[in-house]
Design brief:
This protein has about 150 residues and is mainly beta. The protein has a single domain, classed as Deoxyuridine 5'-Triphosphate Nucleotidohydrolase, Chain A. A 5-stranded antiparallel β-sheet has the order 2-3-11-6-8. Strands 1-5-9-7 form a 4-stranded antiparallel β-sheet. The termini are far apart.
Length: about 150
């Protein structure tokens, strides 16, 4: 599948790394911070980090999901404030990542730092139908923690 990206920042591919898969087995395309200079995010703060990119998703049966980078989260507490970003096929604006510092130390994001990853996933559009009864399951209506530890 071909996915077209629009460079909003002309420095994409030179100063700022172009979107790419880091390894042959990677599921997500790395997205880099398209900043003019370093930005420090204090503990508990969040910042909107531009990527300098827009994407042309070819049809409503595909969605782009923006995930945090696990290394940033595990080592520094850096995550996406919205957990997972959803890029609908009809959104044509810049991909912006709401980065949040859940760590205990200030964290500096430099121009070109990889800040998130973009995964393309098939979408199934549901037809909504109301009913008075749901099909039976062994779990039933048991909620949080009901399946064990």
């Amino acid at each position: 599948m071909i996915i077209k990206f629009k460079k909003i920042n002309p420095e994409i591919g030179t100063v700022i790394p172009a979107p790419d898969y880091a390894t042959a087995g990677a599921a997500g395309i790395d997205l880099a911070a398209s900043l003019r200079g370093p930005l420090v995010i204090a503990p508990g703060e969040r910042a909107m980090i531009p990527t300098g990119l827009a994407v042309d998703i070819p049809g409503r049966n595909i969605v782009g999901l923006v995930f945090p980078r696990s290394g940033l989260a595990s080592r520094h507490g850096i995550a996406l404030a919205n957990a997972v970003g959803v890029i609908d096929s009809d959104y044509k604006g810049e991909i912006i990542c709401p980065v949040q510092n859940n760590g205990e130390q200030p964290y500096e994001i430099r121009p070109g730092d990889r800040i998130a990853q973009l995964v393309f996933v098939p979408v199934i559009r549901a037809q909504i139908e109301f009913t008075g009864e749901l099909t039976h399951s062994a779990r039933g209506e048991k909620g949080f923690g009901s399946t064990g530890r």
